[in-house]
Amino acid sequence: MKHHLLRTGLAGLMLAAGLSSAWAEDPIIIGAAIAQSGAIAPYDEGPAKAMEIAVDEINAKGGVLGRPLKIIYSDTKSDIAYGATAAQDVIDKGAQMVVVTCDYDYGSAAASVADAAGLITFSTCAGDPKFGPSGIGPNAFTMATGAPGQAVALAEWAYNVKGWRSAYVLLDTSIAFDASFSDFFERRWKELAGADGLIGKDTFGGEDPQIASQITRVKGLPKEPDFVVLCSFPPGGPSAMRQLRAAGVNQPLLLSESWDGDFWLEAIPNLTDAYLVTYGSVFGNDPRPEVADFMKKFTAKFGAPPVTSHALTGYSVIQGWTKAVEKAGTIDADKVREVLETFADEPLLAGPTTFTKDTHINMQRDLILLEVKDGKAGNVVDVIKAHQMPK
Questions:
Q1: 105 in any annotated domain
Q2: Do 336 and 297 sit in the same domain of this protein?
Q3: Rounded to whole angstroms, how far apart are CA atoms 353 and 165?
Q4: Is residue 255 domain-shared with residue 294, that is, in the same domain?
């Protein structure tokens, strides 16, 4: 009897060891071809860490389809051209889904490689609507609330809440996100305030912004605008902002989620009267319990909150993709894509998420509006969303 129990026990240990070995040797690999260095790294760092939180939680519950998840990385170095190389690197190492940078321009090359390889590819937060079937391919999705939705939400808030009636738009032509943001802001603003409500528009190049002539045109207007929409992003955007303030252009500034966090603020000492729309507050004061809880969880794991709230989208990429995989019963891209395209207000941390065959981006989710005042970011003003997309 003792020998039988011993043999049974040994068999159980061997079985457990075998299962443990299989578990360790057969993960589902998620390849992250993202910026781990360079100017874009602050936008990818938080989402990547949030993905790790989501993976840890899922693995603790048994993984996906009985298999653990594992993330591998390849650094794009914030180099648009290097994105394709980074994507191929993670694919060659066994990636079965690919996550790319939080921007269409910086992430599309990597996404195109993954799409061509027949893999689902997600940007954590590329906000240009071209990130999807129209600009990349059928397997490309983004967890962003798109630039059009952000711009429309800000336009409606400026008109309906602040009562402003005249706007000036200053567009950084570096990336597609800002072009989309500018376009949809202008379209919605003209619907609200009339064509005369947009009293001027100018452009500049964000890599080395020298905007003296643009400032001269702003200051030469017959009537000062109620506010300026600065469609740009760090690190180039703060230089333009500093020049505006130094020249006495002190109107309120409206900004996209590209300005989230406070890592850029030292470039504009004592900045005030600037408002940005983004996914959540990283400053410990988000009024939504699920976001506040996530920020606490993130801080507990990594010792500090995320640099930007784009972390919410990284967590949601893993949430959304694994939900689709479980429902499809496979990691096969065609079957997973079909499930993703049935999402209708799917509850994810980034907000209710809807995908269709033609649209792999969301527009009308809740966003938080934060104020920069007296050189400090993070004052929560409101939670807003786009109510009516322009025709």
A1: yes
A2: yes
A3: 32
A4: no
Helix spans in the chain (H): 2-25, 41-60, 83-92, 104-116, 147-160, 176-193, 212-219, 236-246, 289-302, 311-328, 333-340
199 and 141 assigned to the same domain: no
Cα 367 to Cα 178, 385, 387, 390: the distances in Å are 18, 6, 12, 18
Answer yes or no: do 256 and 156 share one domain.
yes
What tens digit of pLDDT does each residue of 75-104 get? Answer: 999 999 999 999 999 999 999 999 999 999
- Give the SS3 label for residue 226: coil
pLDDT, tens only, 151-168? 999 999 999 999 999 999
Contact 46, 302 (CB under 8 A): no
Q: Please say whether the beta carbons of 41 and 305 come within 8 A.
A: no
SS3 content of the chain, % helix, strand, coil (to 5): 45, 20, 40
Q: Are residues 43 and 176 in the same domain?
A: no
Q: Specify if 252 maps to a domain.
A: yes
Residues 98, 135, single domain; the answer is yes
Name the strands in the sheet holding 227-231, side by side, starting at the edge strand that comes first in the sequence.
Answer: 198-204, 167-172, 227-231, 253-255, 274-278, 367-373, 376-384
For the chain, the domain total comes to 2
What's the pLDDT tens digit per position in 341-350?
A: 999 999 999 9
CATH number at residue 246: 3.40.50.2300
Answer yes or no: do 156 and 268 share one domain.
Answer: yes
Q: Closest by alpha carbon to 30, among 14, 50, 60?
A: 50
Cβ neighbourhood burial of 81 (10 Å; 0-12, 13-18, 19+): exposed
What letter would DSSP give residue 374?
T
Same domain, 137 and 216: no
Residue with tokens 């690919």: 98
Considering the entire predicted model, what is its pTM? 0.90
Residue 70 pairs with which residues in a beta bridge?
29
Where in the sequence is the domain holding 141, given as residue range(s)?
Answer: 26-145+290-340
